[in-house]
From TrEMBL, chains A, B:
PROSITE patterns: HTH_ICLR (PS51077), ICLR_ED (PS51078)
Protein name: IclR family transcriptional regulator
PANTHER family: HELIX-TURN-HELIX TRANSCRIPTIONAL REGULATOR, ICLR FAMILY (PTHR30136), HTH-TYPE TRANSCRIPTIONAL REPRESSOR ALLR (PTHR30136:SF24)
Domain IclR-ED: 73-252
UniProt xrefs under Gene3D superfamilies: 3.30.450.40, Winged helix-like DNA-binding domain superfamily/Winged helix DNA-binding domain
Domain of life: Bacteria
Keyword DNA-binding (UniProt): yes
Annotated organism of origin: Amycolatopsis nalaikhensis
Pfam short name (any one): IclR_C
UniProt keyword list: DNA-binding, Transcription, Transcription regulation
InterPro entries registered for this protein in UniProt: GAF-like_dom_sf, HTH_MetabolicPath_Reg, Tscrpt_reg_IclR_C, Tscrpt_reg_IclR_N, WH-like_DNA-bd_sf, WH_DNA-bd_sf
Keyword Transport applies: no
Stretches assigned to the HTH iclR-type domain: 11-72
């Protein structure tokens, strides 16, 4: 489900450096030099030279066994991404409130191309198991957050998703384009989405859009609960209120939410 | 307080690419092309060419006004850093518990060189204001997490910190090396740190070490409360228990904490 450029597709040094970073995936977070070279489609010598530069800067680190992994320094720079931790910081107080009131799974996601990227999740210890990974991706047409993001995506994005085969994760996944189109219209009309057993049969997710100041949808928030535990209509106001709060915080700008200075 | 390489210090293309990324800082998350070029020490033409490659890959994004910012794709790759979100994912259930019990500020940090890097924070809405930024840095000798990380750092790191001028953030900051050395010995003996008014006068922080399987200190956890609200000795067991839980989760490996598959 992860978008990957063709290994070594670019010939520029920049693209080789990026290919090295792209060699790391959720199921391969630590790589030997030869794995790194193979996965990024460059020679062993090139991988060795570039990786040494990346290690020196801190974009990569080496463990005791000499294996490479993504470095904390890259994570620090990446934490400045407005759509990553920037969004997450603005949203966190509202996500916390949602969690405290429900003790269910709370998720925050954005659309990247034709997929959902999860930016934050708070997992209730006793809530229905949800194995979303922060930084992980998923299809747009099945999850609560995905349905919201798809419903408010540009027409071209919707057509591309609806025009491709829609994978059925469970018997309840809506994989008929006409049916999905009606669902998306409902999401826009009601102001929230419901994904009932469409990813795993035992879970129900209610999602709502976070509007940016310009009226576009910047993100989506959801609650995920056991499929038989609650009526979606009871959860929707909670999720929508949290989404509105996050939208307001975003409009105020990150500097209002987290003034610079005095950490401790 | 941020470590910065000399702009354009390296002459390789790799170092120029990294210099472009490093141009972004907490107080400059969106940059025009000329700002990007100036801050990274490369020519306008070079900045333009490299930035275009970074935008194409998704390491940078451009906003409606054409300004550059760190892209979500870089954040996705960086989320694979074991010391960033990897640690954070393992720690989150324990941080949540700590927050639910206290409703105070909960922080998770690691040492990077001579500084603290904050990996997670959960902020109580009514708790004493703490303006730590996830991904942000701070001095080792003042904060609760910093004192823990310094107390357990290699001797060479301790000597370097103690040998340099120790900035006094408040009148209570310990900036005398001999006094600080005794404090660090206490941190090791007691198993927790106390930073009482040493960063801001109204806040008190209690920190505890997260031990890795090899016995080294991988991270530190802290609670930050109002300076006059609680005895540190009452908070210490809570913080230490959370730190031990995180250490156990780390030893079990990320795959045990977040099995792959079925996100929703």
């Amino acid at each position: 489900m992860t978008r990957r450029a063709e290994p070594g597709a670019g010939t520029s040094v920049t693209s080789k450096v990026l290919a090295l970073l792209e060699a790391f995936t959720p199921d391969a977070t630590e790589l030997s030099l030869s794995e790194l070279a193979r996965r990024s489609g460059v020679s062993l010598a090139t991988a060795h030279r570039r990786a040494a530069e990346l290690v020196e800067w801190g974009a990569l680190e080496r463990d005791a066994a000499g294996r490479y992994r993504v470095g904390l320094r890259l994570w620090e720079v990446a934490s400045l991404a407005p759509r990553g931790l920037g969004l997450r910081d603005a949203a966190m107080p509202f996500l916390e409130d949602l969690y405290e009131v429900t003790h269910e799974n709370v998720q925050l996601a954005v659309r990247e191309g034709l997929e959902v990227v999860f930016v934050e999740r708070i997992a209730g210890r006793d809530a229905v198991p949800v194995w979303t990974r922060v930084g992980g991706r998923f299809a747009l047409h099945a999850t609560g957050v995905g349905l919201v993001l798809l419903a408010h995506a540009p027409a071209a994005v919707q057509e591309e998703v609806l025009g491709a085969p829609l994978r059925a994760f469970t018997p309840k996944t809506v994989s008929d384009p006409a049916h999905l189109r009606r669902m998306l219209a409902d999401v826009r009309k009601l102001g929230y989405s419901v994904s009932d057993g469409q990813v795993t049969v035992d879970a129900l997710s209610v999602g709502a859009p976070v509007f940016a100041a310009d009226g576009s949808v910047a993100a989506a928030v959801s609650l995920v609960v056991r499929a038989d535990s609650t009526q979606p209509s009871a959860l929707a106001p909670l999720v929508m209120a949290a989404a509105r709060g996050i939208g307001r915080a975003l409009a105020g700008g990150p500097s209002r939410v987290f003034p610079a200075g005095r950490p401790r």
